Amino acid sequence: xxxxxxxxxxxxxxxxxxxxxxxxxxxxxxxxxxxxxxxxxxxxxxxxxxxxxxxxxxxxxxxxxxxxxxxxxxxxxxxxxxxxxxxxxxxxxxxxxxxxxxxxxxxxxxxxxxxxxxxxxxxxxxxxxxxxxxxxxxxxxxxxxxxxxxxxxxxxxxxxxxxxxxxxxxxxxxxxxxxxxxxxxxxxxxxxxxxxxxxxxxxxxxxxxxxxxxxxxxxxxxxxxxxxxxxxxxxxxxxxxxxxxxxxxxxxxxxxxxxxxxxxxxxxxxxxxxxxxxxxxxxxxxxxxxxxxxxxxxxxxxxxxxxxxxxxxxxxxxxxxxxxxxxxxxxxxxxxxxxxxxxxxxxxxxxxxxxxxxxxxxxxxxxxxxxxxxxxxxxxxxxxxxxxxxxxxxxxxxxxxxxxxxxxxxxxxxxxxxxxxxxxxxxxxxxxxxxxxxxxxxxxxxxxxxxxxxxxx
Length: 457
Prior knowledge:
five-stranded antiparallel β-sheet, five-stranded mixed β-sheet
């Protein structure tokens, strides 16, 4: 991936923005922590100065200054004269004990510079001054240790900020590069599809993140697009093949009518044949158009709660006599006692079961038993049309749903080869899965419909 392209990419910019926000949040937290640390160290220093002052002052007894002087001298000898100061002076300002020369200091806690009292360096000193038995007592501790701790904390925070910034930016760039590679894969796949490679699919990372979810939906859309395009190719080829014969027959009939009419013969029968042939061609195109409209989802606006069992019962009742005239039997059993409600178009569902029943009646011999059944299950309603006729060869079971596909290659039987294609389109519109089973003998077609989303109401 080119660096310039990565810098312009949305994942990198998002990663950079989040990295900056993370660094700013870390800096803000560090500043707050440093201020709390600084305050606590100052409070600890004040507490230490007060404690030392109290210990030294407690050695004084009325009219007994020697113990106080001894305590001040002892504490003065125990330090190096830079980290701590001790001073005891009388009312006239004369030094009685300590390690620094007398200086003016206000009562209570205050801060002075070491140079102001003749100490080496430029450290600050926290002092506590007060009167003990008429004498002036000053105790102080240097900020050196506190400043060192603050410096260590500040340096640690600074280096931590550098490390955090490097990790945040580096990690952000790494994650952005990974995301960009996946987006590049999507871009390349879509470019291949645009170039005509409809078999191309976008690879999945397999971690189930949002990009994988979007990729899965895009692959499903590509599958549908590929199926539609392949269906169009197949339909174009089948239309050219299947309509060639009826168009030739229509042309021959018209030519015969012209020839008979030129000799003064009766052409009425030929014109009737031509009209019937034209009607069959027109019916084929109307069926193709209706399948296209159904596949486009245009009929979903007419979806209402539909009782699937009632629809199947109506079809069985209407076509029972047709099957009987053909020497066959048609029944619907067992009929469900409770309503089997789905969300759909009753007219299209009726057309679906009519096509399946007509297909069985047309292609099965006399004495064939045709049965409609409906069963309710946890996944929905399973509606089936079964017969004990010759069935469909295994190699052609998936092909029968193609438009204009017919098992009778010679086209000697009636039909356009669109009945099961219409069944498939209606089933897809209703979200129903179709399975074909070999009943040995016979054929069974089962459709699994999802239940009505608001329940059986």
